[in-house]
């Protein structure tokens, strides 16, 4: 029925590709492309015996628009799934526009080089005008809206779990549970234990922990010092965990698309030992990206640290426990106050048994496949650039229920103060 080009072959991409191959009646042909073709070949060989999906592989440098165009022109996909690195979003969008093909990704654009003078001038202007200082934001991709509209193409942004499923939860609550929504609290809890004293997935977690937190209140950003707002919550099937208010990308799009919501916050759990390690490493300069000279050789501290610590890809078979990610809402229905909690609980070991990855990759890869499914079956297609909450949430959540991330609901949740 459909040909799909997947760019990327890391942990999340491997899960998304594995799940695509479980729905071969829609994903009839699939090309896995990455800078390192051998990784693509290995995954294809692993999946081919158990799927009817016809899998091919290719080598591509996703930083190079011409290479991307050459691959898209030769393969002729119906959809490009960008599950590569966030700084490659714009080059892949450019290639999709040039070749006339629909686009989707799992995370919004973030520059590779935050010291680039041209980028920094635009960034500093945005900080002053918008009121938040995170390096990642949707403005760069939203700027493509008219180009995709004029081309008659759809671009779906941020279709992982958060962002992604959490926005679908918001759209679902607005459609089915509330007449008006006053507050949204997005809670991301990882109750997994990998058995190491310390390990990290580097850039995503480091950026979140070290950057100022922010939330939206009455349509405006409120920025706070890093990790300065802490709460404790009792998560279903996980238990009591400390969580911290962070900046996260879906707050930006929800503030734009649900403008009547009075407050939107995002919390993520971190253990005290993890935070102590991070603070110590930051204090001694080991999280720095600035090269230093050591014994006549130039090294980047964080890259040296990455070589010392466990490879994040090796954590899957060791990780036990569960994740719990969802949204708590307050508002009104039929003139009466109401609260509502919709969330998913995902088991690390069950994920590893199914696809060879832990729940962190699984909870991003499955929504990517389900988002692609929505686009390929015509459920989510309209010219322009959109985030998940701008589409009908019902078929998407039904697909998540079916393919591994079922929703749970609580109509009288404990609220976060």
What does it look like?
With 417 residues, this protein is of the alpha/beta class. The chain contains 15 helices and 18 strands. The chain has helices at 11-20, 37-47, 65-75, 89-99, 117-130, 139-142, 145-151, 165-177, 203-210, 249-257, 272-283, 301-308, 348-355, 359-376, 393-403; strands at 2-7, 27-34, 54-59, 79-82, 102-105, 154-157, 180-190, 213-217, 220-224, 230-235, 239-245, 263-269, 292-294, 297-299, 322-333, 336-347, 384-387, 408-410. Strands 7, 8, 9, 10, 11, 12, 15, 16 and 18 form a nine-stranded mixed sheet that branches. A seven-stranded parallel sheet has the order 3-2-1-4-5-6-17, with helices on both faces. Strand 2, helix 2 (37-47) and strand 3 (54-59) form a beta-alpha-beta unit. Helix 8 crosses helix 15 and helix 14 (359-376) crosses helix 15 (393-403). It is globular, with a radius of gyration of 21 Å. It starts with a strand and ends in a 7-residue tail after the last strand.
How is this structure best summarized?
By secondary structure, this protein is α/β, with parallel strands linked by helices. The protein contains 15 helices and 18 strands. It has helices at residues 11-20, 37-47, 65-75, 89-99, 117-130, 139-142, 145-151, 165-177, 203-210, 249-257, 272-283, 301-308, 348-355, 359-376, 393-403; strands spanning 2-7, 27-34, 54-59, 79-82, 102-105, 154-157, 180-190, 213-217, 220-224, 230-235, 239-245, 263-269, 292-294, 297-299, 322-333, 336-347, 384-387, 408-410.
